[in-house]
Amino acid sequence: MSEIIELLRILGPRNAVRLKRRYDQALPHVRGYVATQCLWAVANCGLADRLLVQGGVGVDVAEFAAEKGLDRHVLESVLSYLDGLRLVRFEAGRALLLENGRRLLQDTRGLFELTYAYEPLLARLDDLLTGRAVQGRDVARRIEYVGRGSGLLCRDLPYPVMTEIIARHGVRRVLDLGCGDLAFLFFLCARIPVVSAVGVDIDPRMVAYGRSLLKDNPLSGRIEVLEGDLLNLDPLLSEGRLAGVDCVTAVDTFHEYLWDGEQIVLDALAKLRGQFPQALFVIGEFCNQPHEQLRKRPTAFLEHHLFHDLTNQRIGDAALWRRLFRQAGFQVVEEKVFNLVGHGYFALQSKAP
């Protein structure tokens, strides 16, 4: 109490209150940045997963640091900070994940993974702003974490919605375009036992990562992953690798081509329709939320829009997707658009001649 009285005497009551209020307003922004960096570090070194597995037993930090070849002092500094935020309990050399930390590192892990994917651009934002660096040439997103983060986030809504649509139409063989880390196909095949699937991705790193996930996975007999370009599936078709496909899916894939204009997406859709004329197409896509809406209700799509703007990805609205589908020769047989989360789902079939 004596310290507070002395501070009030030196600063004056009004100035002291105003100063505290300003720092209270600033601290959440600074703390959010620091805490996120620390959570990334804990996740990337493997400690997050170890803490989740160990539960109430906790982890011996010295042993973990030695096992992973980590700097013990740095790790303990990070854990002491997270202890102060009541995300972990770190005492007597052991770390224990608290409930708030468990929710962040398990329930909402995808949000952190996806943000980490775009961290290289945020770290060099000054260089991008001044032209010392160019996106795509000098700095790029971490593609593996785009797949991992998106896969985790999509389990909450996109995958259940799309799986429900697919189940109702009784398909047997699914082709997933831009399959990433195969998260959707794992989700789908686990819930519909009669479905087999093939995922196609243009990025060889994601294909290699997907194949590593298939090893020793009980669903590996029903899922395969191939390297290929959705704009040109001719090589895979000629090899018979896509035989029997009666459903084509894509989750947040086509918007990545919109920056170069609508025609490339239109041509891709029309070609795919010609290659799989009898197939059901189930497309999940971001549907743009107007900035005025985000200003009133700044959901996570505010960050999402920033990430896409910085990487030259355009997000279309639901009307644009409907128009492109129609112009490509599809009819929309089922549609679900959730404006609150900026996402839409479209079941398409080729128009009758």
Describe the overall structure.
54% of the residues lie in helices and 16% in strands. It has 353 residues and is α/β, with parallel strands linked by helices. It folds into 2 domains: 105 residues, Orthogonal Bundle (Arc Repressor Mutant, subunit A); 199 residues, 3-Layer(aba) Sandwich (Rossmann fold). It is globular and about 85 Å long.
- In CATH, the architecture of the largest domain is 3-Layer(aba) Sandwich
The fold-level CATH name of the largest domain is: Rossmann fold
In order across it, which strands form the biggest sheet? 6-5-4-7-8-10-9
Total strands: the figure is 10
Q: Tell me the domain tally.
A: 2
Number of helices: 18
Report the principal-axis shape: globular
Element-by-element helix/strand order: HHHEHHEEHHHHHHEHEHEHEHEHHHEE
CATH class category label of the largest domain: Alpha Beta
Q: Segments where pLDDT lies below 50 for 5+ residues?
A: none
The CATH superfamily of the largest domain is Vaccinia Virus protein VP39
Structure summarized in a few sentences:
It contains 18 helices and 10 strands. The chain has a 7-stranded mixed sheet, sandwiched between helices. It is globular.
List keywords for this structure.
single chain; 353 residues; alpha/beta; Arc Repressor Mutant, subunit A; Rossmann fold; 2 domains; seven-stranded mixed β-sheet; three-stranded antiparallel β-sheet; 18 helices
In terms of topology, how is this protein built?
Layout: H1 2-11, H2 13-44, H3 47-54, E1 59-60, H4 61-68, H5 72-84, E2 88-91, E3 94-97, H6 99-107, H7 109-117, H8 119-123, H9 125-130, H10 143-154, H11 158-169, E4 173-177, H12 183-191, E5 196-201, H13 204-214, E6 223-227, H14 234-238, E7 247-251, H15 262-275, E8 280-286, H16 291-296, H17 301-310, H18 318-327, E9 330-338, E10 343-350
Parallel strand pairs: 4-5, 4-7, 5-6, 7-8
Antiparallel strand pairs: 1-3, 2-3, 8-10, 9-10
